[in-house]
Amino acid sequence: MDPTHRGPEEYGHDGSGFPEETGRRRPPRDPLTPDFGQQTPQQARVIPLISGDLLLTVNPVDGSEVEPCPPGEQPAAPARRTPAERADRERGAAPPVPPGPPALQLPLLQREDERERLTRLLARGRSVRLTGPAGSGRTTLLDAVAADCAGFAPDGVVRLNGHRRNVTDLLYGLFDAVHDAPLHRPDRELLHEKLRTTGAVVVLDDLEFGGAALDELLDATPECAFLLAATPDVQAPGPESHLEEVFLPGLDRAHAVELLETVVERRLTEEEKNWAGDLWFESEGLPLRFVQAGALLRQRDLLSPDPTAYDEFGYRDGAPADEPVPETGAEEAADVPLPSLGEGAAPAALLGSRLSEAARQTLRFAVALGGEVPHQAHLPALVGDTHADAALGELAGCGLLSPAGPRYRLAAGVLAQLEAAGYGDGAGEHARTVAQHYAWWTGHPSVTPVRVVAESDAILASMAQLVPGDGAGQTSVAVLLARSASPAFAAGLHWSAWERALRIGQEAARIAGEVAEEAYFHHELGVLALCTGNPDRARAELETSVSMRGALADKPGAVAGRRALALVADRSRAAASGGPAAIDAPVPSGPGEPSPPRGLPAVIPVSVPKPLSEETAVIARQTAPQGGGEAPAGRFALLGGARRNLVAAGAGVLLAGVLGTVVTLGLTSNSDPAGDPGASTEQSVTDGGDTEDDLPADETTDGTTPSARTSGSASASTTPGPSGSASASDPGTGPSATGTASASAPSSPDDSPSSPRPTPSHTKSTSPRPTPSGVTPSSSPTDESPDPSPSTSTDDPDPEEPTTPDSSDTAAIGPTGPTPASPSTT
Q: The whole model's pTM is what?
C-alpha cells in the first residue's frame, strides 16, 4: 500500500494513467523485460563555492560560472576546529581497516634513539627532516612520534601526506585541518594570514619536493614545527631553512631476526636464521624486506602441515579410529625448500602466486594504475567477486601495500617486481575497466565530492594510462571520466587534481575529435586560472572555448564563456589602474566631482565644435586622460562606463542632430506676413532659448576674446536695404521672433565698428535691427572670426548666456524668399 494514498498502487496514482475511479487494472509488468518508459532525468550537481572574492558555481553541464561575490554572501571568518573535531577528522583521514582478521601489530625495534631525539626537537619548536630509504620504516616511526607530541601545540598534531602533492596542496590541507570553512577556498592573502597564527606539529610523510618550495612551506607557517619524511633522492632543503637532519638507517642483524620471528609468530630454525642473515646482508637491514620474508615463511608453513596436528588439536575428534590419517602430498609439502636469496630480496612475484585469485587480480589493477590501489569498496565491482574486498587484507598482511593518506598503494619496489613477473600484461584493458567504473561512480548523485577527492590518485592514474591510448575508444573513456570527475574535484576543493583532470581530458578530447568536450575543458581551465589569479591564461583559455562553442552553435556555453571573459577584462583593467579588482569599478572624474555609484550608467563625453563649413558637424570623442592621469574637470569629464554607453551616446547625438535639423527648418520657414514690409525678420536657431545655459567662452587664435560665444551656432539677422535684403547676423545674438526686439550681445571695450562692406554669410554684421515701438535698438561692434575653431574649453559656463547647438550657417529668408546680402552700414 502507498503510505500517502489509499488504495493499491496499481490503480493509477503512480502515474500509470489508469485512475482509481475507473477500476481498470494496470497491466502486469514483466520482471524480465526492462522498463522502456520515460525515466526521470538525472539532476546535475550544481555546487556554489567561495574562492576569495569570487562566487564560483560548479556547473557540470555548460561549464562553471564565476562572478563577484554579492554583498552579504561572503562567508564567515574561518573558525578553528575543536580538539574533538580534529580527532574525528584524523580518524576519517586514516586508511581503512582491511576486512578479515586483524592485522599483526609490529613493534618498533631499534628506533628508540631516533624517536626520543625527534620528540625532543619538536618540543622545542624545531623542524626536522627525517631521511631514510624506501622501506626503512619511516611511516611507523612517524606514527609513534605523533602520539608522543599530542599535547605540544595548541592546534594539536596534523597528519599530512605529500604523495603527489605540491606546496599549494599542503598549505590548503593544513588550513583545512585546523580551520572549519566549508565550501570556502580563501585567497592567498587570507590563507597566509590564517597560517601565520596556526600553531601545530605537522607530521608530513612522503615529501616529494625541497629547495625553494620547501622554504615557501616553512615561511608560510612560522608557528608550526614540521616533521618531514623523505627519501634520499628528494631535493635537499635550502640553506635558509634551518632544518635538523636525521637519517634513519636499517636494523642490525639481531633486531632483523627478531622482527622476522614476530611476523612468523614462532622461533626460527637454524637454517632459517642463516637464510635471514644472508637476507640482512643483501637488504642492508630494511624492515620491509623482513616483513615480506616473514610472509614467505608463513606461506611455507601453510604448505608444510604437520600430520600429527590433526590429533593434537582435536581435528579428528569423532572420526572412526581405524580411519587412516590423510598423508597424500604431506611428504612432498614437507620438503618445500626455503626461498632463494633472490626470491627473498624480490618476493612480490612469489607472494602473489600463493594468494587468492581476487588478490592477484587486484595486483593487476594496481600495476595498471601505476601502483595506486582502488579503495576496497570498489574491488568487488572491478574484480567481479563479491568477497574481493578481503583481498586488501591479504595484500597488506604480506607487506605488498603501504598506507598513503586515506588509501593504500603498492609498497616500495613491488611495482617493478610485479611488472617483471608479467602482471602488467593487459594493463590498458584494466585501466579502461577502472576508468569506466569511476566514470559511473563519480557522476552518481549519492557520491559526495569528499569521497571523490579521496580516490583522486586512482582516478587520475586511470585517466593518464588511457592518454594517448592505442586501443579503440580509450581516449573517449578518458574524456567521459574527466567530464564527470573534474566537477567533483572542484567542489571538493582539490584544485590541483581538478587541473590535472582538465588537462588530461582536454588532450583526450583533442585526440578523439570531440570538439564540444574540448571546448568545455578549455572553459573550465579558464575559470580555474581566473580563480587562481592568472588572467592572461584565463583569457587565452576562455577565448579558445568561446570560439569553439561559437562554431558549434552552442549558445549557452558561449554565453557562459563571454561572461567569464567580461569578468577577466574588468579585473585586468582594475588591476592595471591600481584599484581593486571589482566589476563596474567607477573611473574617478574631475576634481570636486563625485564618482557615480556602482550600477548606474556612465556618461560618455560629447563635444560639439563650431561649424567649419556650411554643413553641421557633431563630434563625439572620449576625453579620458591617457597614461593614467586625472580626468578633465567640468561637464565633459569622463565618468567611466562600458561600451554599451558609447552606443547610447551615439544614438543621443544622432537624435540631437535630427531634432536640430527639424527645428532649423521650422524656424527658417516661418515668416510673419503682418510684420513690417520694409524689414526682414531675424531668424536664429537655438537649443533651448534664452533660459538655457551657454557654453563658456574661450580665446581665439589671435588672443582676443569674442563678445559672445556659442557652440557652432549660426543665426541670420536682417538689415534695412532698398529691397529688404537680408545679411548674416552676429552668431552671438539671441533668437528674435517676427516683429519683436532682439537683444544684442555685450560688446568688448576695445572693439571698433567696421567699415561698410559686403557681408558674407559667415561674417558678423553691426547693422541696426528693426525694433518695435518703445524699444531702443542697440548695436554691437563688429567681431570677426573668419576661421572659428571647435570649442574645447572646460570652464564653467555663464548662466546668463543662451546655449546654441551646432548647426550650419543659414541665410536669412524674408517674406518673399531668399535675397542677396547687401552692404551694411554703421
A: 0.66
